[in-house]
Amino acid sequence: MVFPILAAFAAIGSWFNGLVVARNANKSTQIAVQREKLEETIARQNRENNLTINQNNIQAQFSIAHSQLEQAKQLADEQKLTQLKIAYLNLIHQSTLQENSQEFQINLEKDRQLFELKCQELSQQHQ
Fold first, then answer.
1. In angstroms, rounded to a whole number, what is the distance separating the alpha carbons of residues 89 and 79?
2. CA-to-CA distance for 7 and 10, rounded, in angstroms?
3. Cα–Cα dist 82/97, whole Å
4. Is the pTM of the predicted complex or chain greater than 0.85?
5. What are phi and psi of 126, to 5 degrees?
6. Cβ contacts of 98 within 8 Å, gap of 6 or more
7. What distance in Å separates the CA atoms of residue 95 and residue 86, rounded to the nearest whole number?
8. What does each of the 127 residues of the chain score in pLDDT, given as a tens digit?
């Protein structure tokens, strides 16, 4: 009579042990599934973060390139302005040379006329 009771307790213990094993297996499966989901989430967030970082880097590079372009434009504008100033000064110089040349020719003509008058005066005096 003790043996059937012990056997019944053993069967109940075995049944409870099976439940505990099944429950632990179920928890292990749940933990594995949660771990996999967490790893997928982390991997997705890492990809998103990398994309964001790449986008920020590209935006920063565009910003730097734009700034360099503006500096180049400004430098080119300054060089053009300098070239225009040089061209203007050259025109002024040429104009001055031309005016001086005209004045020289006028003065030369006046001197020639004066010389001819002096020559005529001298020739009249010697006659």
1. 15
2. 5
3. 22
4. no
5. -85, -5
6. none
7. 14
8. 666 776 776 777 777 777 777 777 777 788 888 999 999 999 999 999 988 998 888 889 998 988 898 888 888 888 888 888 898 888 888 878 777 787 878 888 888 898 888 888 877 876 6
CA–CA dist 75, 82 (Å, integer) = 10
Both tokens of residue 53? Answer: 């970082």
Encoded amino acid at 31, one letter: I
Determine the Cα angle at 32 with ends 27 and 36, to 5°. 145
Structure tokens at 11: 């069967």
Please count the residues of the chain: 127
The DSSP element (H or E) to which 8 belongs, if any, is helix 2-125
